[in-house]
Design a protein that fits this description.
Elements (H helix, E strand, L loop, with lengths): L17 H27 L5 H22 L6 H22 L20 H24 L18 H28 L5 H4 L1 H6 L3 H4 L2 H14 L3 H14 L1 H5 L4 H18 L5 H19 L14 H8 L2 H10 L1 H4 L3 H9 L17 H9 L1 H5 L8 H31 L3 H15 L8 H33 L9
Helix pairs in contact: 1-2, 1-4, 2-3, 2-4, 3-4, 3-14, 3-15, 4-15, 4-20, 5-9, 9-10, 9-21, 9-22, 12-21, 15-20, 20-21, 21-22
Length: 487
């Protein structure tokens, strides 16, 4: 049995010629590069203001999202989702400026006690970095894209895993609910949302290690069900119960990981269905996430960055403050560059070693150094600036580093698109994709550490599957219906 519906015919004669597709892709990319080069020349010559360059950058990124939706069969490609997240977190202020929500795009306001401006050259380089990273991510995905009609899903009989996955989910859900509720209680008793950053050791110590480890099983079990289950009622029931047990975490104000998971599940559902995604449905989902994000953000401390019932443009402007991180990284690259190796090494451990801001050491973590640089006092109380792969890539190698690293990310997203053509590959992509999408506000290599954690989860599931099969066989042999032992 194939967990994917047969939506594609074997006859591929009606598919467009690959050479023609690549020619159109090349024309698209060359046109964007030419427009970017022209705008850069005008900016250098002084014919283009910073604000006008910001508007052009916002238009470029939004137009790439539209193209990704159209060219990738309704956004059924990780590149589309990545560009959406990149635009929200890095170009949100630019879009808000276009709508009149804000009047100063380039003033650094994130965490600072005293807002400050950066030079025209820094603003221009930050904008160029955004344009270059968007194009370098889109180009390899567009050039090598194969329609779902070409990538026919190839899976074996995976339905046999469903009873095991349901068993794991039912076994771990009570423990996961207990863990999440205890985290909520601890946060309420120790200062709220910021406890995740200033007292993570105490938070973790409030829960037994065995209970904390259930996240290594519950999420993979749920995602495996989401990939394999074709019965709608069972699928929606599993999803409803899984997200119900995450409610205590949402009540603390934490939302990034869960929202990234929801977006990734949307992608998994569209690949699994084999149908063109509905623009109306995607818009409804985005609107619901915006409203929910504002409500959850309002549960944070008074100095938080959200309020309930935010307007869309105000929400976009608030999320776009990550552009400040990119600007500061460009302006003060020499401040951070000596610690690049330490930053990358720390990110490779991030999925296994939680950061605690009370034990801050200069040069260990880029996000911590950035927040401490912007406002040491606020950082000491638990506030943070987040990170950005664009900022880190610029610190690593300037504009050339942004170009090379962005191209590699584009190749990664293309590889994920190809891996998703079978059930095991789609499962792995669904597990890793949330951390890849978070790169616009997270570290450059955090997703690598998360992939190692996913590998550990898969190993645990495989060991459990072996034990589950052995128990089932013993039950069959020793069951009352088996008369072999009576002879």
């Amino acid at each position: 049995m194939n967990p994917f519906p047969k939506t594609c015919a074997e006859d591929r004669s009606d598919l467009p010629d690959a050479g023609a597709v690549q020619l159109i892709a090349a024309i698209e990319v060359v046109m964007y590069l030419a427009m970017t080069a022209t705008a850069t020349f005008c900016f250098v010559m002084g014919w283009l203001s910073c604000e006008a360059a910001g508007v052009l950058t916002a238009l470029l990124m939004v137009s790439l999202i539209v193209l990704a939706w159209k060219r990738f069969d309704g956004g059924r490609h990780p590149c589309f989702l990545f560009l959406c997240m990149l635009t929200l977190f890095q170009a949100g202020r630019l879009i808000a400026y276009c709508t009149g929500e804000i009047t100063d795009i380039f003033r650094v306001t994130l965490m600072t006690a005293y807002q400050f401006d950066v030079s025209r050259d820094v603003s221009g380089m930050a904008l160029l970095s955004l344009a270059v990273t968007a194009l370098c991510i889109y180009a390899p995905c567009r050039w090598s894209y194969l329609s779902p009609a070409v990538l026919l899903p190839r899976t074996g009989s995976c339905d046999r895993y469903l009873p095991y996955l349901y068993f794991l989910l039912c076994l771990t859900m009570p423990l996961q609910l207990f863990k999440n509720y205890r985290y909520y209680e601890y946060a309420q008793d120790h200062g709220g949302y910021l406890v995740f950053f200033v007292d993570h050791g105490g938070l973790a110590a409030s829960i037994p290690l065995a209970v904390r480890a259930t996240s290594l099983i519950s999420l993979p079990a749920f995602l495996g069900i989401f990939v394999l289950e074709r019965r709608t009622k069972f699928l929606w029931t599993a999803a409803m119960f899984y997200f119900l047990i995450t409610a205590p975490i949402l009540l603390t104000g934490a939302r990034g990981a869960i929202f990234s998971l929801i977006v990734s599940l949307w992608y998994v559902a569209k690949v699994k269905s084999g149908r063109h995604a509905s623009l109306y449905g995607a818009g409804i989902l985005a609107a619901m996430l915006v409203l929910l994000a504002g409500s959850i953000g309002s549960m944070r401390v008074d100095h938080g960055d959200s309020r309930p019932l935010f307007g869309p443009s105000q929400f976009v402007a608030t999320q776009g403050v990550s552009f400040d991180v990119t600007e500061v990284a460009v302006a003060y690259r020499r401040q951070f560059a000596p610690y690049v190796i330490s930053y990358l090494a720390a990110e490779l451990r991030s999925a296994f070693v939680a950061s605690d801001q009370t034990n801050y050491v200069l040069g260990t973590n880029f996000a911590d150094d950035m927040a401490s640089f912007l406002n040491p006092t606020a950082y000491h109380f638990g506030f943070g600036s987040g990170s950005s792969y664009v900022a880190e890539a610029y610190v690593v190698g300037g504009l050339g580093g942004v170009t090379l690293i962005s191209a590699l990310i584009g190749l990664l997203l293309h590889g994920m698109h190809r891996w998703a053509r079978n059930a095991p590959g789609l499962f792995f992509v669904g597990m890793v994709l949330p951390d890849v999408l978070w790169m616009a506000r997270g570290g450059l290599l955090d997703w690598v550490s998360s992939s190692l954690r996913v590998g550990l989860s898969i190993f645990i599931l495989l060991v459990g599957w072996t034990l589950f099969q052995a128990v089932v066989r013993m039950g069959v042999v020793l069951g009352p219906g088996n008369r072999a032992l009576d002879r």
